[in-house]
């Protein structure tokens, strides 16, 4: 197959280099976007009388036919085409003859590929947002069912203070909301048309950049042609936002993995979302959260990879930029798959063990702060109260008893202000319910939180 640029060269490419140079193996992903981009360009060339209206119409029909051929699997772009842009242009020429050679008037593959990638990413960002939204709804459902279920809260992975399980789940809902907000923001910078920047300097052909931008649904256009073909910030921002989504999924995965251990036993996996071991018959493994935690690494890798690819590049286009596609494609797929899997896990794969959760908060010292606060209420300075409770903890640990097992006269040996109502104050349910500050874990606050999420997500 002779190349579009073959006239300038005496001999053909070394076969290995030809394959090394090609991107069709992966940029065929952009086929629909490339056709749409070409249709908009052809229509604009017709309107601007760069080509005749009839010519424009014939080119558009040819391009539409290529789309149908692809959808019917009659056309499958593949090597030895160099990339998706040439593959479509060559097929168009073979379909409609020499007229097809007019399509590339006033544009370059540089602005073409920059446009295709934005169109593709714009669609994927919307899809990922939908998946985040569905996942938030699944989290909300679980949160609604578990307001009165308590879970130990940790700092440094040491028991800190008990929480409402809903409050814990709703913390993730907040994170995924920020992820959605971030993607929306990235979308504003993806949705800008570089088409018409041509190779790097613009073109002397009388094009209408606003028309192609509008045809393709872009909000606005790049105002500097050099920037338009060189910019990959938007892609890096997508990888960065995706990395944060994966970070949040990975933290949640980590919690699920230890919740389902025998040691914690806060939850168990149902058979539809757990896997067995090839050797140990008793095993039920949390492969889903482990895979999500594991796949986080590749998304971080893509972010680092593209940052590094772009960092040393002089303006404007350099072939290095061909390396932007695989990280973007793989990230979109990985994030989407992980969100789907995690949603299924929450919908049907994870059962919280209410009994164990409630028991677990009965058997620790995570109500210590409440004893200090009790003394504060009786007029003792917090620092002093803190020291007194520290001594009570030490005493109880040495006697191998919990606060609730310490008789009142013993409490009084540490401070006279203690009364019978101390026992009421340190019940886990009351401990949780008393944290009524805005954003706190009291049942009333959690109810408010749930209501506000319900209004945001379900109305
Ligand atoms: N396959 C190329 C890419 O993905 C298309 C642009 C090629 N431009 C060029 N001047 N060689 O980056």
What would you say about this model in short?
The chain has 459 residues and is mainly alpha-helical. Helix content is 61%, strand content 5%.
Rounded Rg: 31 Å
Unreliable sequence segments = none
The ligands bound in this entry are:
arginine
**How would you write the strand order of the largest sheet?**
1-2
Form type:
elongated
CATH superfamily (homologous) name of the largest domain = Fumarase/aspartase (Central domain)
The tally of strands reads 6
Give me the secondary-structure category: mainly alpha
Tally of discrete structural domains = 3
Largest sheet: 2 strands, antiparallel
Regarding CATH, which class of the largest domain?
Mainly Alpha
What's the number of helices?
19
The CATH topology of the largest domain, please?
Fumarase C, Chain A, domain 2
Proportion of beta-strand residues = 5-15%
Indicate the percent of residues in helices: 55-70%
Mean pLDDT: 96
Q: Spell out the helices and strands N to C.
A: HHHHHHEEHEHEHHEHHEHHHHHHH
CATH architecture of the largest domain: Up-down Bundle
Written description of the protein model:
The mean pLDDT is 96. This protein is mainly α. The protein has helices at residues 15-21, 24-27, 31-47, 53-71, 84-96, 109-145, 165-190, 209-215, 225-230, 233-259, 287-311, 325-349, 354-360, 368-377, 382-399, 408-414, 422-425, 428-433, 443-458, and strands spanning 150-155, 158-164, 192-193, 220-221, 267-269, 350-352. The longest helix has 37 residues, at 109-145. The protein binds arginine (ARG).
């Amino acid at each position: 197959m002779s190349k579009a640029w073959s006239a300038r060269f005496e001999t053909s490419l070394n076969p290995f280099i030809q394959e090394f140079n090609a991107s069709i193996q992966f940029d065929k992903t952009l086929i629909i976007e490339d056709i749409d981009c070409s249709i908009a360009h052809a229509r604009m060339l017709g309107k601007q009388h760069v080509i005749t209206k009839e010519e424009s119409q014939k080119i558009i029909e040819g391009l539409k036919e290529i789309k149908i051929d692809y959808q019917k699997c009659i056309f499958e772009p593949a090597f030895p085409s160099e990339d998706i842009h040439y593959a479509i242009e060559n097929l168009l020429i073979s379909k409609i003859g020499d007229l097809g050679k007019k399509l590339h008037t006033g544009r370059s593959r540089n602005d073409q590929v920059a446009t295709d990638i934005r169109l593709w990413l714009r669609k994927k960002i919307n899809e990922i947002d939908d998946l985040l939204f569905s996942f938030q709804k699944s989290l909300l459902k679980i949160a609604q069912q578990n307001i009165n279920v308590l879970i130990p809260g940790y700092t440094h992975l040491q028991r800190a203070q008990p929480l409402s399980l809903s409050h814990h789940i709703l913390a993730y809902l907040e994170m995924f909301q920020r992820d959605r907000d971030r993607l929306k923001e990235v979308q504003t910078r993806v949705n800008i048309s570089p088409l018409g920047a041509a190779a790097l300097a613009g073109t002397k052909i009388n094009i209408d950049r606003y028309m192609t931008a509008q045809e393709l649904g872009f909000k606005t256009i790049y105002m500097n042609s050099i920037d338009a073909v060189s910019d990959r910030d938007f892609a890096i921002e997508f990888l960065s936002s995706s990395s944060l989504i994966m970070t949040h999924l990975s933290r949640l995965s980590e919690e699920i993995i230890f919740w389902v251990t025998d040691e914690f036993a806060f939850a168990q996996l149902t058979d539809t979302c757990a896997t067995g071991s090839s050797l140990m018959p008793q095993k039920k493994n949390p492969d889903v959260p482990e895979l999500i935690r594991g796949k986080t690494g590749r998304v971080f890798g893509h972010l680092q990879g593209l940052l590094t690819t772009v960092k040393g590049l002089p303006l404007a286009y350099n072939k290095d930029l061909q390396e932007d596609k695989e990280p973007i494609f793989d990230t979109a797929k990985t994030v989407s798959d992980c969100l789907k899997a995690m949603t299924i896990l929450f919908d049907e794969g994870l059962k919280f063990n209410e009994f164990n959760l409630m028991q677990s908060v009965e058997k620790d010292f995570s109500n210590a702060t409440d004893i200090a606060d009790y003394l504060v209420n009786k007029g003792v300075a917090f620092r002093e109260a803190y020291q007194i409770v520290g001594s009570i903890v030490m005493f109880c640990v040495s006697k191998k008893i919990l606060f609730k097992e310490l008789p009142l006269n013993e409490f009084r040996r540490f401070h006279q202000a203690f009364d019978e109502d101390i026992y009421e104050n340190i019940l886990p349910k009351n401990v949780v319910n008393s944290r009524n500050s805005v954003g706190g874990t009291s049942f009333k606050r959690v109810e408010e939180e749930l209501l506000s999420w319900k209004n945001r997500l379900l109305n």
